[in-house]
Amino acid sequence: MATLSQQSCVPCRGDSPPVTEAEKAELMPSIPDWQIIDVEGTPQLQRVYRCKNFQQALALTVQVGEAAEAEGHHPALLTEWGRLTVTWWTHAIGGLHRNDFIMAAKTDEIAQAVLTQ
Ligand SMILES: C[C@H](O)[C@H](O)[C@H]1CNC2=NC(N)=NC(=O)C2=N1
């Protein structure tokens, strides 16, 4: 199967299956710098990227936003001086879907390109 970052999101509906514990255990090693956090009972994937200033954080924000639009799957983005916090979860199911892991992997690739410029 293609690398996680090369996969595409599937349309997500309210009855789409959340990832199982076994799938989570299989997917997390592909995105080792991400954490699963709990926000009022909703599991979410989150990573903080350190940036050299606000402009770089903003550039990363825009590129992650464009990837989100291309896939029809959208993160929460908190842009601050020197860092960007990216949070993925699937609103339709109030939890984590495989799409979130795909988008986290894509986010890592984008950040690798933007933050080394
Ligand atoms: C109709 C549209 O595709 C849906 O509302 C999408 C938009 N982006 C989304 N993004 C995320 N993260 N979760 C969703 O459930 C979701 N739903």
UniProtKB/TrEMBL annotation:
<protein>
    <recommendedName>
        <fullName>Putative pterin-4-alpha-carbinolamine dehydratase</fullName>
        <ecNumber>4.2.1.96</ecNumber>
    </recommendedName>
</protein>
<keyword id="KW-0456">Lyase</keyword>
<dbReference type="GO" id="GO:0006729">
    <property type="term" value="P:tetrahydrobiopterin biosynthetic process"/>
</dbReference>
<dbReference type="Pfam" id="PF01329">
    <property type="entry name" value="Pterin_4a"/>
</dbReference>
<comment type="similarity">
    <text>Belongs to the pterin-4-alpha-carbinolamine dehydratase family.</text>
</comment>
<dbReference type="GO" id="GO:0008124">
    <property type="term" value="F:4-alpha-hydroxytetrahydrobiopterin dehydratase activity"/>
</dbReference>
<dbReference type="InterPro" id="IPR036428">
    <property type="entry name" value="PCD_sf"/>
</dbReference>
<dbReference type="InterPro" id="IPR050376">
    <property type="entry name" value="Pterin-4-alpha-carb_dehyd"/>
</dbReference>
<dbReference type="InterPro" id="IPR001533">
    <property type="entry name" value="Pterin_deHydtase"/>
</dbReference>
